[in-house]
């Protein structure tokens, strides 16, 4: 799954960081959100609420260092995938996706 995130970033199909992810949600472009296991409870609550209200699947995986290293940006907490194909592929790799990608 981590390699797919790298491909999505290189293809420009990934929003990186809280502000960019919030913008992608508001613009209705986010197809999948990935948040790290070590994100603060406030950050998790915020993005889970937004994801659930917009019916966006959310995955809680990795830690900030792992996600940051994979994407070339240190201490990354949250990303959104803005491409349906990448989102489906990532959800397929991770069997716990809560919603199908619309």
TrEMBL record:
Domain Ribosomal protein eL8/eL30/eS12/Gadd45: 4-88
Any single Pfam family the record assigns to this protein: Ribosomal_L7Ae
Domain of life assignment: Bacteria
Record protein name field: Ribosomal L7Ae/L30e/S12e/Gadd45 family protein
């Amino acid at each position: 799954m981590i390699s797919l995130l790298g491909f999505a970033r290189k293809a420009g199909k990934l929003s990186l960081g809280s502000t960019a992810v919030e913008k992608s949600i508001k613009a209705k472009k986010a197809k999948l959100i990935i948040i790290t296991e070590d994100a603060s409870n406030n950050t998790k609550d915020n993005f889970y609420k937004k994801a659930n209200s917009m019916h966006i699947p959310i995955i809680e995986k990795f830690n900030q260092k792992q996600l940051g290293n994979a994407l070339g940006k240190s201490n990354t907490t949250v990303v959104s995938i803005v491409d349906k194909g990448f989102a489906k592929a990532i959800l397929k790799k991770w069997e716990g996706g809560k919603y199908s990608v619309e």
